[in-house]
Fold this sequence. Notes:
The protein is of the alpha/beta class. It has one domain (2-21, 36-273): TIM Barrel (Alpha-Beta Barrel). 31% of the residues lie in helices and 17% in strands. The protein has an 8-stranded mixed β-barrel with strand order 1-2-4-5-6-7-8-9, surrounded by 5 helices. The radius of gyration is 17 Å and the shape is globular.
Amino acid sequence: xxxxxxxxxxxxxxxxxxxxxxxAARPAAAPGEARTPRPGQAYAGMGALGRSAxxxxxxxxxxxxxxxxxxxxxxxxxxxxxxxxxxxxxxxAKATEGIAYKNPYYAAQSRGAADAGMVHGAYHFxxxxxxxxxxxxxxxxxxxxxxxxxxxxxxxxxxxENNPYRNGLDICYGLSPAAMVAWxxxxxxxYEARTGRRPLIYTNYSWWRQCTxxxxxxxxxxxxxxxxxxxxxxxxxxxxxxxxVWQYDDAGxxxxxxxxxxxxxxxxxxxxxxxxx
Length: 277
């Protein structure tokens, strides 16, 4: 597919530029406003789906949860001690995107979270139009997305959401629901085969219903759901009955996006140590 090859080449070229220069704060956008990022600039929540009209939650973590955060190259310098003091107990950093981009700040972000005593993990921003799911799982694992059962490392996360680049494609990257389900299965199957752990799946209710026809087969994987400025993380897509991680806002107490884990620190460490049953 010549179009895909050209896209991969452009991704590689932009990666070098992104690595060389720190990025500014990510651009603000009104709810529903389309952003047009450069390759590599996508992040968890880029699709801005699942946002309500409620104001930003800047004062507290949702009741019954402990606080966390997710970051990408839009947060090159994080005050990890300050985040811990405010209540953050875990962090998930973007490691990779597609098969040509590596977050140049990932190593420092992962180390900073670990040094601050946080449970930490990594996520991969999926580009299903660029390559197969298994290839992207391999790229993710090779560049920070692995897992170890030390109780401090979260399983890697697959971020599948609204296509932010479009490139003449729809929000489902030009894939049919059946093809998207197969792509996700290829990624998650390869990740589990290589690490012994099912990855988290980051998504939102609207995208999952449209792009997979609300497929239920992925519910064996733990869910990281995006539902901003809502009193609860529900409703859940597919066959999920609960969320392991809830991205509840795109700004607030901590740098980056705001996340919550249901339970206490012991439960979080037990989840990290896994595997889930």
